[in-house]
Amino acid sequence: MSSEILSQNEIDALLSALSTGEMDADELKKEQAEKKVRVYDFKRALRFSKDQIRSLTRVHENFARLLTTFFSAQLRTYVQISVASADQIPYEEFIRSIPKMTILNVYEVPPLDGRIIMEINPNVAYAMVDRVLGGKGISLNKVDTLTEIETRIMKNLFERAIENLAEAWSTITEIDPILSDFEVNPQFLQMVSPNETVVVISLNTVIGESSGMINICIPHVVLEPIIPKLSVHYWMQTAKKEMQPEDLQSLEKNIRKTEVPIAAILGSADISIEDFLSLDIGDVIQLNQKIDEPLQVIVEGIPKFIAQPGNYHQKIAVQILDTYKGGDEDDE
Questions:
Q1: How many whole angstroms separate alpha carbon 133 and alpha carbon 150?
Q2: Which parts of the sequence belong to the Flagellar motor switch protein FliN-like C-terminal domain (predicted)?
Q3: Which of 55, 121, 125 is nearest to 88 (CA)?
């Protein structure tokens, strides 16, 4: 079925043509019965489903939030990073789409095979360097004359920034990103064959008054071992996965050691604001609790037990008489 949606005018024209005999309904049915030919470009082979692309987008939305926090702390200025798009394209197309001279960080992601690229627009990269050096975050574009000091600052900054990728990917797999190469010319980066499918996640980046793009290029060879984990079915299975008995025992053991505040209520009273404002040292407030009535014991602010007052080892204490009937139990 064609995905084209007809307008109301086109529908009216079609009905009119059928009623006047300009168009034969049998011929229309015959055309629909014929096999439709769809053009397929083998150079742009789609190796990831839309579901898997959405999963990668969710992972890198988390990565964008982590980067925003990291760079805000490091640069001490306004930083906003968000996912703009996620597409699967041939590696050759990715290389053509980025500037001829730009900042390219190549990372290994063991235990996964292959390497990934983080391309940072020079305007963004130089704004970061300017902030690190105490400037206002002015963006320049002189990648061809990158000094050793600027190179070192950028490498240190992006080497620490990529640690957030491991945290973002922890929901699907454990990785240990390592900066293996720093380059400014995309033509020198032939990591995979030109027709190899890569996933490119583009991040909108704003640093102070400067803005640009950060592109993350992930080849298919990197994602191939974890493709099953990118499906919604896997995420649902993971969410429903039952805890192991030893995990439950450990959790129960830790919960039993948790301290909770407990208090015995001696009584309460209602007084007017006027009486409250006139209270002075030595005044007596009469409580609604009789001296021979049991006390209410509350845990985390919730009534749980009935007790009687007394002392134990020369300290004030209460003895539990019964569980509290009412409150949460009545609600259930």
A1: 10
A2: 254-322
A3: 55
90's tokens:
């041939």
Tell me the residue length of the chain.
332
Q: Tens digits of per-residue pLDDT, 101-148?
A: 888 899 998 988 889 999 998 888 888 888 888 887 777 767 667 788
105/171 same-domain check: yes
Cis peptide before 303 (omega within 30 of 0): no
**Nearest of 94, 68, 72 to residue 82 by alpha carbon:** 68
Does one domain contain both 72 and 128?
yes
Is residue 167 within 8 Å of residue 182, measured between CB atoms?
no
Locate 69 and state its tokens. Answer: 């926090």
Q: How many angstroms separate the Cα of 239 from the Cα of each of 60, 123, 247?
A: 20, 41, 16
- Amino acid found at 78: Y
126 and 22 within one domain: no
Q: Are residues 93 and 218 in the same domain?
A: yes
Cα 256 to Cα 34, 85, 250: the distances in Å are 71, 47, 10
Q: How far apart are CA 154 and CA 244, in angstroms?
A: 45
Structural domain including 147 reads 44-240
Nearest one of 309, 314, 303, 317 to 290, comparing CA atoms: 309
pLDDT tens per residue, range 302-319: 888 888 888 888 888 888
The Cα–Cα gap between 213 and 125 comes to 10
Instruction: Report the C-alpha gap between 156 and 158 in whole angstroms.
Output: 6
Distance of CA 180 to the CA centre of its chain: 26
Asked whether residue 249 is domain-assigned, the answer is: no
Domain closes at, from 173, 208, 240:
240
User: 218 and 135 in one domain?
Assistant: yes
pTM for the predicted model, two decimal places: 0.57
Position 269 in a domain: yes
